[in-house]
Amino acid sequence: MDYGRIFNFNAGPAALPQPVLERIRDEFLNFKGSGMSILEVSHRSKWFDEVIEQAKASIKRLLTVPDNFSILFLQGGASMQFCMVPMNLLPADQSADYVNTGTWSTKAIKEAKILGRQVKVIASSEDRNFCYIPKDIPVSKDAAYVHITSNNTIKGTQWAKFPDTGAVPIISDMSSDILSRPVPVERFGLIYAGAQKNLGPAGVTLVIIRNDMLERVPASLPSMLKYTTFSESNSMYNTPPCFAIYTVAKVCQWLEEDIGGLAKMEEINRKKADLLYGFFDSSSFYKGTADTDSRSLMNVTFRLPSEDLEKEFVAQATKAGLGGLKGHRSVGGCRASIYNPTGIEGVQALVDFMKEFEKKA
Ligand SMILES: *Cc1c(COP(=O)(O)O)cnc(C)c1O
Predict the structure, then answer these.
(1) 10 lies in a domain?
(2) Residue 141 known to be catalytic
(3) Last residue of a domain, which of 239, 258, 277?
(4) Within-domain flag for 325
């Protein structure tokens, strides 16, 4: 059925798979014979219990999360993790390494510093406006952790491979590329992701934490700021964001059953990105802003010959049913976010539009 939906290239909140939206619609008024909407059932009911268990089991299967990790659902967005990570995992007498690859890394560093923690920025791509992922990552042997941002939503760069950090656990903000490709979870101490880019709606943050990291959590923290509060209560110390978790479960089911897992998802994502970047490489009108070896498969940032043309491009694209192509307000230019739900036909429609626009310009 045609709902008049556009090709949605928003960076976040972003497009969701249409089958997921339809499945939610279909059971919206009476969830599994409960006589209630999923919005109306208790989080202590068997109905919600099944939902949260399904979400966790599905994430565990998709990412092959080892048994010594816990999967948690928190609130406060990825931004809350910028402070929770150092509060919980960085003792005052230790230092943590951070790699600065853009706006979100910068914010993570800022929060750790506000707390008065010792932070060492061991690598940065600030010298060229964050258009690349640094290659030399000199990890401090005694660091509490190394913090990276796996995909830089605003600058359009992504770690193709994760750095070798020896025994030092990697902590990654994966808000904008979670579940877009397989990840060696066993190499991480903690992974976090706000759901609204690639996982579901705004309102829930996924945290995957290695259980021994939980031993670092100081007893002195307020309950709501401790990872242990959530690991010990199956993320239900207080009322969780039920509907957001339910939607995440549906998105995961779509990834497993409709797509066929993360290796397959990565293959599709790579085809989509190749189509767009391949087009840039053959054009002198559109220019990608990220270095070739650091290009993001999720957020494709590009420029046109002038800011006036960029404005016109975004306006005409919107009229043509291609939405969300304006770059982040802090950097300008254009950006096409092509997360999991965006099909190859959406990217093809964008390339076709770009060719037409160039002809007329
Ligand atoms: C969007 C985004 C954030 C901020 O997420 P909130 O949930 O709004 O706090 C942090 N990191 C990355 C990589 C993002 O893309």
Answers:
(1) no
(2) no
(3) 258
(4) yes
Whether residues 91 and 206 fall in one domain: yes
305: CATH? 3.90.1150.10
CA distances (Å), 63 to each of 8, 69, 239, 255, 336, in order? 26, 12, 26, 11, 26
Considering the candidates 47, 56, 97, 104, report the single residue annotated as catalytic.
104
Classify residue 5: in a domain, yes or no. no
The helix (H) or strand (E) run that includes residue 336 is strand 334-337
Q: Compute CA 225 distance to the chain's CA centroid, rounded to the nearest angstrom.
A: 21
Q: What value, to the nearest 5°, has the Cα angle with vertex 163 and ends 158 and 166?
A: 160
Active site residue 47: no
Best substitution site from 75, 105, 153 to test ligand 1's pocket, by max atoms within 8 Å of Cβ?
153
User: Which residue's alpha carbon is at the smallest distance from atom 14 of ligand 1?
Assistant: 175
**Residue to probe by mutation, ligand 1, list 84, 104, 110, most atoms within 8 Å of CB:** 104
Active site residue 197: yes
Within a domain: residue 4? no
Q: What is the pLDDT along the chain (361 residues), one digit of tens a residue?
A: 789 999 999 999 999 999 999 999 999 999 999 999 999 999 999 999 999 999 999 999 999 999 999 999 999 999 999 999 999 999 999 999 999 999 999 999 999 999 999 999 999 999 999 999 999 999 999 999 999 999 999 999 999 999 999 999 999 999 999 999 999 999 999 999 999 999 999 999 999 999 999 999 999 999 999 999 999 999 999 999 999 999 999 999 999 999 999 999 999 999 999 999 999 999 999 999 999 999 999 999 999 999 999 999 999 999 999 999 999 988 889 999 999 999 999 999 999 999 999 999 8
34 C-alpha vs ligand 1 centroid, how far in Å?
35
Rounded to two decimals, what is the model's pTM?
A: 0.98
